[in-house]
Amino acid sequence: MVERTQDRFGLWPERLAADSAYGSAEMLAWLVHERGIEPHIPVFDKSARTDGSFAREDFAYDHEGDVYVCPAGKTLTCSGTLVNDGATLLYRASKYDCDACGLKPRCCPKALARKVPRSIHEGARDMARDIAKTDAYPTSRRERKKVEMLFAHLKRILRLDRLRPRAMRSPRRVPARRARQHFL
C-alpha cells in the first residue's frame, strides 16, 4: 500500500501508525531499514516473564561489545548461531558465573545458566520503543483512533460491512441490484 500511494499520488509517509498486529520484528525492520518510515506502532513483545524472574529489559545490551550484561554485572555472549528459522540470536551466560551468583534464584531458577534471545531486527524494535516515549506518539495514536472510528462507523452504522480500504482486484462491474443491497 505504501508503494501504491507513492506511485499514484507521489506521497511518501514520514511516519506510519498501526495497531500491535503490525508490531512484529520483521514488519518494523521493513518500515525502518528498507523504507525509512518512522513506526508509530506498539512493539509486539512476548518477553515478559510471569515467574518473577528477570525479564530481558533487566539485562543491558552493549552495542559495541555485542554482549548483554546481567544485573549482577556478568556478560552473556553469543556464538553467532541463528535459531528460530534464522530470526533470533541466543546470548548465554557462563554456567560458572551463574553458579556463584547470588541473584540466580531471581535470574534463572530452573536452568543451569541464563540465556537471553535477541531478534536480528532488534534495532528496529528498539527504535519503535524509543518513538513510543516521545510526545508525537500519543498524537499519532489519537489520529489513528479517529480514522479507525470512521471506518467502524461506515461498516456498522451505514452497513458497509464489506468495505475494504484497498484497491479493487478486477475491473468487473457489480450489478445494480447487488449494489443497492450493499448500500441500503
In words, what does this structure look like?
The protein is an alpha+beta fold and 184 residues long. Among the domains are: 56-120, no CATH class; 135-184, no CATH class. The protein contains 7 helices and 7 strands. It has helices spanning 2-9, 25-34, 95-99, 104-107, 122-131, 136-156, 176-183; strands at residues 15-17, 38-40, 60-62, 67-69, 75-83, 88-92, 115-119. The protein has a 5-stranded antiparallel beta sheet with strand order 3-4-5-6-7, with no helix packed on it. The protein has a two-stranded parallel sheet with strand order 1-2. The radius of gyration is 23 Å and the shape is elongated. The protein starts with a helix and ends with a helix. The model is unreliable at 178-184 (pLDDT under 50).
Give helix and strand order, one letter per element, not per position.
HEHEEEEEHHEHHH
Give the mean pLDDT. Answer: 83
Give the strand tally. Answer: 7
Cα-based radius of gyration, to the nearest Å: 23 Å
Protein name: Transposase DDE domain-containing protein
Pfam families: DDE_Tnp_1_6
Domain Transposase DDE: 69-167
InterPro entries: Tnp_DDE_dom
SSE diagram, text form:
Elements: H1 2-9, E1 15-17, H2 25-34, E2 38-40, E3 60-62, E4 67-69, E5 75-83, E6 88-92, H3 95-99, H4 104-107, E7 115-119, H5 122-131, H6 136-156, H7 176-183
Parallel strand pairs: 1-2
Antiparallel strand pairs: 3-4, 4-5, 5-6, 6-7
